[in-house]
Each structure stands twice: as structure tokens, then as C-alpha cells.
Amino acid sequence: MDFTANLTEIIPRTHNVKSFRFSRPAGFDYKAGQYIFVTLTVSGEIVRKPLTISSSPTENDHLEITKKLTGHDFSNTLDAMVVSDVMDIDGPYGNLTFGGEYSNIALLSGGIGITPMISICKYCTDTGLDTKVIIISSNKTQQDIVFRNELDQIEQSNTNLKVVYVLTRADDDWEGFRGRTSESMIIRDIPNYKDYVFYLCGPPVMLGSMVAILDGLGVPKERIKQESFVGY
Ligand SMILES: Cc1cc2nc3c(=O)[nH]c(=O)nc-3n(C[C@H](O)[C@H](O)[C@H](O)COP(=O)(O)OP(=O)(O)OC[C@H]3O[C@@H](n4cnc5c(N)ncnc54)[C@H](O)[C@@H]3O)c2cc1C
């Protein structure tokens, strides 16, 4: 579906991440985890980029995208937008989706790769699914954790959902896990990992190392779904 959307709300998430909301057009159906293409005029040129829908299909009144503000041209154009500005959208696309088809899912995200995961987490919680969900969100520092309040609240309200944060450049006061998402973390936090379907999202390098770890643990390829944020 192609449509022109009016921005209704802009929500700062971290020092360099913002969410952009617009009205959900009638008849726009999508699955948790899918993305749309956003078309903007950037320095006089038409530029079309994929951005994941960070809202859940259960949220009827709005669609939300969440962008890491990179300081590059497309990002700056989006960041300069104000409520009531318009953007062209087409979609939805993508197969990193969840609609209740598995009983155990593990969501491994790197940085802004959290966007499809928050949609899936909200979807599971809002629909009251009894799917066991574990999310391991990897970031550089505490200040980089996108949707931390939202994830902590979801974890409180959904006893089937567990959130684990891991930081690669943690400050001294961080009491959580440090380093990268590792084989030992997966074994510790998901002891029955062979019963899980894995969802991976983040930069290509992170996906490569996650796939290698899962492969080493004997997780079959059919149980690994991934979305690479190329260009990020
Ligand atoms: C399926 C999919 C889903 C995605 N979902 C998300 C999401 O939910 N959130 C998100 O933040 N990202 C997401 N991405 C990534 C997103 O599409 C962009 O590629 C990414 O955010 C980089 O955007 P940008 O604004 O920096 O792009 P651009 O401004 O086009 O910059 C991209 C690259 O172009 C070069 N470049 C651009 N301008 C200049 C310049 N003036 N001088 C020199 N070099 C320049 C740089 O190398 C830069 O790294 C997704 C990607 C995919 C494939």
C-alpha cells in the first residue's frame, strides 16, 4: 500500500534516536517485525529508505518508525521534520515477523536493531499470547538502550517475557552484563535454546557473529530468522 502520512508526534528515545508517529491509514495491515519504505526529498533528490515499524499491529491509532540519527543526509532530513509534515510511505515488507506461530522465541538485537523486537514484544503482550519470549538487547552504553522503559514495563506485565541487556562499553556503575552477546550468555539465559526460534536484527557484523554462535550450538538454520540493517 502507498500512502502519504502526516507526522502526528515525535518522541525522543535516546541522545541519538527518535520515534516518528503518524496516523495508521484505514486498511493498512502489517505483521509485528515488518518494515516500510519512507521516501523523502533529501538535498533536492528523492531518497527511499527502509525503516522498521516499531509500533505493534495491536496499536490501531498510529504507526511508528524509530530512526537512529546518524548525522547523514537522510537522517538529518527526517530529524528536521516537525509535526504535520508529510512523508511518502509504501509497505509493509519483510519476513522477520511473528504472529504467534512459535511457542518459544529468542530476540537478539544489536543497537537500533531493537525496532522489530519492540513491535514483537508489544504484540505478544497486547494479545496475551503464552509464547515464551526472551530478548537480549546489546548496546554500547546505558544511554544507548532504546525502549528501555518500555521493555522494563512490558517485562513487568508479561510474565512470559524476559529482558536481558548487555553493554559493550558499560560505565563503572552498570550492574548488568558486559561484553557482546556470546555463546555462554545464550546457554545461561536460554538453557533450552534448542526449543527456540531465534530472531536476529542489527548491523551485518553482529548478525554474522550471532549466526556463527548459533550454528556452533547446533541451532538449525530453519530456526534462525534475521534482518540486516545494511547502510546502518
Ligand atoms: C530492512 C531494514 C530495516 C531498517 N530499519 C531501520 C530502523 O528501524 N531504524 C533505523 O535507524 N535504521 C533502519 N535501517 C537502516 C536505514 O534504512 C538506514 O540505512 C540507516 O539508518 C542509515 O541511514 P542514514 O540516515 O544515515 O542514511 P544516509 O544519509 O543515506 O547515509 C547512509 C550512508 O551514506 C553515506 N553518506 C550519506 N550522506 C553522506 C555525506 N553527506 N557525506 C558522506 N557520506 C554520506 C554514509 O556512508 C552513510 O553511512 C533499516 C535497514 C533495513 C535494510
How far apart, in Å, are the first and last alpha carbons? 25 Å
CATH fold category name of the largest domain: Rossmann fold
Number of helices: 5
Approximately what portion of the residues adopt beta-strand conformation? 35-45%
CATH architectural name of the largest domain:
3-Layer(aba) Sandwich
Low-pLDDT regions: none
The CATH class of the largest domain is Alpha Beta
Rg from Cα: 17 Å
Compressed to H and E, one letter per element, the order equals: EEEEEHEEHEHEEHEHE
CATH superfamily of the largest domain: Nucleotide-binding domain of ferredoxin-NADP reductase (FNR) module
Broad structural category: alpha/beta
* Total count of strands: 12
Strand arrangement across the biggest beta sheet:
4-3-6-1-2-5
Overall mean pLDDT stands at 97
Characterize the main sheet.
Answer: 6 strands, antiparallel
Q: What's the number of domains? A: 2
Spatial shape: globular
Helix content: 10-25%
List the main descriptive attributes of the protein structure presented here:
232 residues, alpha/beta, Elongation Factor Tu (Ef-tu), domain 3, Rossmann fold, six-stranded parallel β-sheet, globular, binds flavin-adenine dinucleotide
Can you characterise this structure?
The chain has 232 residues and is α/β, with parallel strands linked by helices. It has two domains: 2-93, Translation factors (Elongation Factor Tu (Ef-tu), domain 3, Beta Barrel); 104-228, 3-Layer(aba) Sandwich (Rossmann fold), CATH 3.40.50. Helices cover 21% and strands 37% of the residues. The protein has helices at 73-79, 115-126, 148-157, 183-189, 204-216; strands at 2-14, 17-23, 35-42, 45-52, 62-68, 86-93, 104-110, 132-139, 161-167, 177-178, 197-202, 224-228. Strand 8, helix 3 (148-157) and strand 9 form a beta-alpha-beta unit. Helix 2 (115-126) runs parallel beside helix 3 (148-157). The chain is globular and about 50 Å long. The two termini are 25 Å apart. The structure holds flavin-adenine dinucleotide. Flavin-adenine dinucleotide is lined by residues 35, 49-52, 66-68, 70, 72-75, 94, 112, 115, 227, 229-232.
